[in-house]
């Protein structure tokens, strides 16, 4: 079966990259990005032991989450509009990965406070510095860090990035290294341990693991080519 074979190969490659870079075995989580794929496909991955899934659209995630077994863990990896924060928090994502502005982080904290929860988030960094892209530039994040850390109802677990697509996986290495160094700087400023670095997708996750990823977000390499309706 295709999905099981792909998962086996990816798990092997992650393990090899962990070993190659002297990292502990099992330190990287594979997030299976199931966007556009039906629950029947996601169940194949589930039956093969996969529990961590990522969706980039809230509406689609909300349709899939209730029909999948309850021991799945879900990450929201796509952009989140501020007027959908309440819905997202009510749906119990383990992690909201793409928090790309201070305004969004503030809205999440405020609404999490109203709901009596602490929202776990990652901060999205625009590592390429392209104006058109989502996320904090490294300079902006550095400047706003204290304000973000002070938000009472969010727990910033780390950083994520979506570098510009490149044909050669090696070309993404500098972007991954930039994200890792930025996390190191912010860790040094304290007080957050920032354990998570979410980086690397189907074509470059092995490079991301070598550069310190703790979460790799892999979709098409598991489930096949996406077709958008
Ligand atoms: C779709 C998506 C992925 C997975 O992309 P693949 O190339 O299919 O592995 C990873 N991260 C984000 C934010 C995505 O939207």
Write the layout of secondary structure elements.
Layout: H1 2-20, E1 29-33, H2 39-47, E2 52-55, H3 58-64, E3 73-76, H4 85-90, E4 95-99, H5 102-115, E5 119-124, H6 138-149, E6 154-160, H7 173-189, E7 196-198, H8 205-210, E8 215-218, H9 220-223
Parallel strand pairs: 1-2, 1-8, 2-3, 3-4, 4-5, 5-6, 6-7
Bound molecules: pyridoxal-5'-phosphate.
Residues 33, 35, 56, 77-78, 162, 201-202, 217-221 line the site of pyridoxal-5'-phosphate.
Give a short overview.
The chain contains 9 helices and 8 strands. With 229 residues, the chain is α/β, with parallel strands linked by helices. An 8-stranded parallel beta sheet has the order 7-6-5-4-3-2-1-8.
Features:
alpha/beta; binds pyridoxal-5'-phosphate; TIM Barrel; single chain; 17% strand; globular; 229 residues
Polypeptide structure, described:
By secondary structure, this protein is α/β, with parallel strands linked by helices. The chain has one domain: Alanine racemase (TIM Barrel). 41% of the residues lie in helices and 17% in strands. The chain has nine helices and eight strands. An eight-stranded parallel beta sheet has the order 7-6-5-4-3-2-1-8. Helix 3 (58-64) links the parallel strand 2 (52-55) and strand 3 (73-76). The longest helix is centred in the N-terminal third of the chain and has 19 residues, at 2-20.
